[in-house]
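Ticket #4471: structure export looks truncated?
Reporter: QA, pipeline team
Priority: medium

Steps to reproduce: submit the single chain below to the structure queue and open the exported record.
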Amino acid sequence: MPPAAIAALNPRAILRASYTAMFVQAMVVNLTPLLFVTLSRQFDLSFEQVGRLVLVNFATQMLTDVVSAGVVDRVSAKLLAVLANAFAAVGLWVFALAPFRLGDPYLGLLLGTVVFSVGCGLLEVIISPIVERTPPVAVGGRERKAAGMALLHAFYPIGKVAVTVVTGLAFLLVGVERWPTLMLAWSVVPALNTLAFVGLRLPPMFEVGTRTRVRDLLRRRASWWALVAILLAGATEVSLAQWASAFVERGLGTTKLTADLLGLGAFGVGMIVGRLWFGFRGEEADLVPLLRRGALAAAGAALAMAFAPGVWVSLAATAFAGLAVSLLWPGVVSLTASRFPLAGASLFALLAVGGDAGAGVMPWLVGVAADQVRWAPAWLVGAATPEQVGLRVGVALAAVPAVAMAVVVGRLRRG
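Actual output as written to the record:
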């Protein structure tokens, strides 16, 4: 960028709004899983139906990513960032109110999910390139730039943990039946961030004449291996994250507060630790073997969550699973970005398509298994109820894409 253009920017404000946007994405994606059991009971929904909300969430994000891939480098980044936060805020209002105003409550939940998922899809596409193109906050070299991207990646699990803790405590104080009010309260965050982006000037997403076109990316074998790898990464991470709370509550037989704080919350803490390490030290590591070990560790953690003999062992495995999956998605993005440094924001859109495909389908399959599977050998599940058997088998399915990713990830280097 020309020096005059750099001087016109406010990097601190841009990064602050971008980190808040990543928080918003985490908040919107992870509020629904905290309500799986509540929605199932209140509206008489099956586990497949609540799992289908996740499928719709990520399918909508994926469609948004597909549309964005062709236009994101031609449309104002500021416009996309403003629209993304606005859709997230409006979607939370629809999710909270529509089920009680439509004849079919599930239709209201689906409608709200679609609206806020459009916002999530736009955030996924535009926020990373905004931070990538923003000048370092302080003159001091590479570490400051790396720290900026590290915090961006870390703000997703930070948002996950913050939303989990605050929501869990709020349910304890006012009752889980007040969940619509809490949804409306959370909508203030994306609403304020919409106004924040309105007042910002953002950097261009690429230098004129240097961008690698989407069709050129798709001619490279490495880009297709990257799409497969991030699909498997999304399937592994999101299926474990989205079902952690419901699994701990109903699968292990704990209280909802324990499920939220020690299930999904512990998972999020593991992700924070892993992603902060990746951001600050990841450049020094060989990512391919690191991703392979992370994928295999995630597979082991999923099996331990599902079939460990004690509740506390399963809870410890849940926290370890968060650490194991923490590098999978950003690691694939980092490897792919290094292979295609001139791809612009369209590369992030293509990777988001692959990640969202896995993140949508796999949690839904977990819900299907939780509904349909009612028996497993006693030596594997112990004295579990039929519902607990289904949830345990469903969570164990997350090991499948994890193992597949361990096999595929080597192709990112050779492809």
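Status: closed, not a bug. The export was complete when the record was re-opened. Leaving a note from the reviewer for reference: Residues 3-414 form a domain with the Growth Hormone; Chain: A; fold (CATH 1.20.1250.20).
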